Amino acid sequence: MSSDAAIRCRGLGKAYQLYARRTDQVKQMLFGSFHRFYLEYWVLRDIDLEVRRGESVGIIGRNGAGKTTLLRLLCGISQPTCGELNVAGRVAPILALGAAFDWEMTGRQNVLISSAVLGLRRSEILRRMPSIAEFAAIGPFIDQPVRLYSAGMRSRLAFAICAHAETDILIVDEALAVGDAAFGRKSLAFMESFRRRGTLIVVTHDMEQIRTLCDRVIWVDDGGIRASGGVAEVLRLYNDATEAEEDDGIRFRFDAEAHAALSQAAANRRHTKWRSG
Amino acid sequence: MSGPFNRRDQAKASTRFPDGLDQTYHDSAKGGVAATGTKDRHVGQSRAGGRATQRGRRALAPLTVGWRHRELILAVLRRELADRFSGSALGWVWAVVGPLITLAIYTMTFTKAMQLPAASAHGSTSSYALSTFVGLIVFGLFAELCCRAPLLMHEHAWFLKNSIFPSETLAWTAVFRALSYAGISVVVLLVFELALYGLPPLSILLLPFIVVPLVLFLLGMVWFLAAIGAFTRDISYLMITFVPLLMFVTPVFYRVTDLPDALRVLAYANPLGTAIEIARAAMLDGVLPPTLACLGFLVSSLAVCRGGYAVFERYKGILVDVI
To answer: Is A164 helix (H, G, I), strand (E, B) or coil?
Structure first.
């Protein structure tokens, strides 16, 4: 691996396992090495990607294209089905803001746990607590259970936690969608300052944000990379394509035969012996 | 100040490897090299003499995982204990009163109502009660974890799905939580022993040597049950039926010495029974526990721990997709 690559993946693919019945899951667990009891649904396939250290990359694409799945793989929340993935450095994901909170705990308790998940020590967390509270700017609510928070307050707190994690790679998924304009500006300012010291990966539908934040854009479409390159160039291609395409349900169709063929292809690449169900 | 806008020391940042933050597939190799899918795992041996150290590292994985994430484990544990003790109105009182009531009822039943032959063999009611208490503490630890482990992943589903929470640490937190509860019972037991018989024997200093293998055994069990339980809820129903039965197979209300010779071997084959007997020997009798039993217990604990972790590791990748 070249020393300046923060993220590199080759032939990365992710398939979810679709089960017809609940019992099939158990059967798969027990006899999985003899027979396959599920259909594979390929969300991502053949992703080749290299992000250099310090680079900031935008990921665009329509709903259901596989952007979030790609981010989840890069963060390590879910595991790739095939392919190779190298990540060098600490990763802090800003995805599904606030969804990882325990609703019964207070904001402060959640900060302690979420920051520990990001690899901070307790003493460091406690030292940063005032700064986190100030960044989130939710006032006395930080000592209230999270179930009393609004969606905006939850995402404020979650963003503040990630902003205070010492991280090398920041992965952001639509983070500014829920916050108000003032918080949006603050978050944007943070991301711009982070860009100068770390690797940034942003998923967004806001083209203006991409122009301000990113050096390079990757366009994910139908589980693969459709285009990648300079910001202006890819955005132009993307805009042309979205104008031409209609918003119909075709993209969410599940073609069992096509996916079975993909599974077969992946299996051949893996060189493993298994009978396809 | 450590505000988010402050620029950090670049040199320091670039030499740090992801050891604090586990990405699961970083486990197998050094410093974030080589992460592959579940099927084609080609862990490279990049350095000379890598094979032996790698095998050693793999064998120790259950322990190193706990050490690496100690801060996180402590944070979650602190939260869960706070929940358990300050969440209810009487908090600590339940932890003391609960086992006392159980003990009182069992002792009354088996010494007065049912006249268990094992109970009368030990002479006084109080010595039978203490010996049963030791059994109940160890078995309670096991029973709590048995019933909780299959649901462990579901309990923390929102964490696992939405953040980079390392799922293998949940077993550590669960075991330590149960252990702290058992610790309270041990204190109660010692207070009783002090009141009835004076100072406990010196062999009580051996207690840590009993707890360590017991923790390993429980960890392995929790990993195993949590992995299987993530896929199917049936395991947790099975446990509810199975655990009370196991209570009578394990020498909780009697001692191994009360059994006929042929069954005694069987009782020692049960690691839980051995743990109880060793604990009794150390805490009550003041004799050194039988060496062979200790050795067997240690070996089986290590095996269960490693085996349970291996099973968990195998299914960890798809856990997030199924819960």
So the answer is: coil
Quick: pLDDT tens for B216-263.
Answer: 999 999 999 999 888 888 888 888 888 988 888 888 888 887 888 878
3-class secondary-structure state, position A47? strand
The closest CB to that of B38, out of A81, A86, A116, belongs to A81
Inter-chain touch A29–B315, beta carbons under 8 Å: yes
Which tokens is A236 given? 């132009």
A136-151, pLDDT tens digit by residue?
888 888 888 888 988 8
> Taking a C-beta distance cutoff of 8 angstroms, is the pair B198, B291 a contact?
no
> How many CA atoms lie less than 13 Å away from B32 in the CB half-sphere?
27
CB contact under 8 A, B34 and A78: no
Helix B125-148 × helix B92-108 angle, to 10°:
120
- Please say whether the beta carbons of A83 and A270 come within 8 A: no
Q: Do the Cβ atoms of A224 and A70 come closer than 8 Å?
A: no
The list of chain A residues with pLDDT below 70 reads: 1-3, 175-178, 246-256, 258-259, 265-277
How far apart are the CA of B5 and the nearest CA of chain A, in angstroms?
6
Token output for B175: 């075991």
**Is A92 exposed, middle or buried (CB count within 10 Å of its CB: 0-12, 13-18, 19+)?**
buried
Asked casually if ipTM beats, i.e. exceeds, 0.85, the reply is no
- Under a CB-based contact definition with an 8 Å cutoff, are residues A13 and B45 in contact? no
Tell me the CA end-to-end span of chain A in Å, nearest whole number.
37
